[in-house]
Amino acid sequence: MPSDRNIRGESATMPNEKKELSFEEKIARVKDYRPIDDTFFEVLAAEPGVCQEILQIILEDPKLIVDPESIIVQSSKRNLYGRSVRLDALCTLGDGTKCNIEVQRSDDDDHLRRARFNASSITVRESSPGDRFEEVVNLYIVFISEFDFLGEGRTIYHVESVILESGAVIDDGLHEVFVNTAINDDTKIADLMSCFTKKEVNDPRFPRMSEAVKRLKTTEGGVSAVCSLTQQYMDAARQEGLEEGLSRGLSQGISQGISQGISQGQSALADAIHDLHDGASREELLKKYDERTVDLAFSCR
User: Fold this and answer.
1) Domain annotation covers residue 242
2) Distance from CA of residue 181 to its chain's centroid?
3) Residue 263: which domain range?
4) Which of 68, 110, 144, 197 stands the most exposed, by the fewest C-beta atoms within 10 Å?
5) Do the Cβ atoms of 149 and 156 come closer than 8 Å?
6) Residue 77 phi/psi, 5° resolution?
């Protein structure tokens, strides 16, 4: 099993011992984050003003209001969904409609079915036994990706239920909106999507996002919040590796199982850290490793 010296290039420490990072080290860890990166977006979208500004642009409703007390993100203590549903930001609009925003960088799954699953899970969770179907929650799914997986060369797609024979749209309370950063159609939505791919955002048309990105990358409170969430996911990944090892140990021997599970979880991380030390950029790493591994690599450097 790789030691802490193998992974980090330093002496081993006890599992519960965490080195307190300096302000400069925290800034170095967060400087390459962009709004499209899910860990950074989770902190960003937890701010009501930012969440509201994004939805006003994407849903083309300048009067749209987000209930500031309603926002639930993946790491929130109020998240009752666990990890079964990705909640980058679930919020309630002024008219009671629910809206779930998800950012996605990996193009390795069936995204339409992913959106359908998340919508179904949220609908069930937000309903109560005995509710009349007319009381089922109205829901928007806003899916932001780095790729145009629907392939029609559009920045934004609105997916609704329709009657095939007439083309009439059916209002069943579910509205799916797929937006991407790959296509620039010279609209304000495309300009907002461009901001999602930048490490620094300074656009007067999007003042809330611009201010929040700068604050989260340059102030003690901001960088600490981002680093804290990154560490939380890093600890969870290590725990998953341990649990996988324990599970394998049931059939292969406890000691062997733990070693194998942790080794598999750390091998990709060790390779990513090595590439990072060799000068690889975040974009280059993301071509070889999944986003969570890249986030952990930056946390370990």
Assistant:
1) yes
2) 15
3) 4-21+222-300
4) 110
5) no
6) -65, -20
